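Bug #77: duplicate submission created two jobs. Keeping one. Sequence:
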Amino acid sequence: MTGLQRPHRRVAIAGLGPIGLKVAAALDRGIDGLTLAAVAVGDPAKPRPELDRLARRPPILPLAELAAAADIVIECAPAAVLRDIVAPFVERGKTAVVLSAGALLEQWDLVETARASGGQIVVPTGALIGLDAVTAAAEGTIRSVRMVTRKPVKGLLGAPYVVANAIDLEGLRQPRKIFEGTAREGARGFPANVNVAAALSLAGFGPDRTTLEIWADPGLDRNLHSIEVDADSARFSMSIANVPSENPKTGRITALSVIACLRKLNAPLRVGT
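Kept job's structure:
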């Protein structure tokens, strides 16, 4: 007896940094029901030998043309172009996989557009852990969610909050707490660093009640995230130490999380909420 044919969907990737390239390679190797249909990059004229190594080289298209070429877009680009990537897809009732969760907090109308059009915005677990548990706890009552992020100094250099407050990290010799506030405030001040906190807040307690600390630690070579949740159903804590990718602001596990998310889309068995 043969199974029913699962729907086949075309995938576009916006941004070919460390995350986008790994996801492109995984799609090229094969993910059930999905095909890499197109990519968009910041500089289309730049040589892309990494694409030539794929078995099926996708076309490079402008952002404005991706929605006509694909059913799903994976946003792996700077947060500043989030709207240009996501809006054309959700307006057409399509799916956008968003990694810049912090920028999404400031452009919530995209979620309302998806609701009205039948589209969907998917925020993968990314570099975090335990979002399923937080989502489940949110079906009851959550009393508090606290996250502490500790990063190597080079992963925090140039963050808007660091620049605006003239925080000198270059000569740091000891761990230093450089931020304490809400997940929303953290996402504004560190748009390339704490998308994990934004994702955590969206999972359950909201961006204005989820609290966040950010530490710069010159002794670290990994990004450390610790979470404590107090709810009526459970009290739990979680921690993860992520190896940075070629981009020190992003963990290697982020790309793997996107690939795992894509595999779930057509999987006959789906584990997790």
